[in-house]
Amino acid sequence: MKAPTKAQLARAARRDRIVDAAREIAEVDGWPAVTVRRLADTIGYSQPVLYGHFPDGRDGIVRAVALAGFAQLAELLTAAGEVSGICAAYLEFARSRPATYEAMFSMPTDLEFARPTTPEQLRAGFRPLLSAMGDETRAEVLWSALHGLADLSRHGRLRPDHETARVELLIGLLRSPK
Question: Residue 102 falls within a domain, yes or no?
Fold first, then answer.
């Protein structure tokens, strides 16, 4: 495989800069503030340059932020080790990167989960859950519960001082005999 050319490296760097700027704007001001015009102004690229990287505009940028988020989540969950560490890392990720988490799970994208076409970043994000739980159904239930806890917490619907007890109860329930 040939090494990338300078032009290819420059294009990849521009794309990464667009994705990083979109994520940063969204984390500070929310996704409604992320527009192609604002991104172009923020990073000093013309709108046609942004559309050259993301022909479908903002939707493609949200998709790219989501994919990058899954890659980051996969690293954190893999490093977290056992189930309780995975749960803590997942909830901290959702809490500390709310706009990225929103792009990953709440905003409309063409990303497909649990399909043959599922991107590797999504598969990598699920792998630590699967490894910790031992089977897909338990891993999906853990993921669903963590997502619910993260979303309810983000919207102030749960008592913050009970997070540890909720996670311990969840782990205990999932470890119960079938």
Answer: yes
Distance of CA 74 to the CA centre of its chain: 9
Structural domain span for residue 88: 6-175
**pLDDT, tens digit, 9 for 90 and up, residues 106-149:** 999 999 999 999 999 999 999 999 999 999 999 999 999 999 99
Helix spans in the chain (H): 6-29, 36-43, 47-53, 58-80, 83-96, 98-105, 120-133, 136-154, 163-175
Residue 77's contacts (CB-CB under 8 Å, 6 or more residues apart) are 86, 89, 90, 125, 128, 129
Cα 133 to chain centroid, rounded = 21
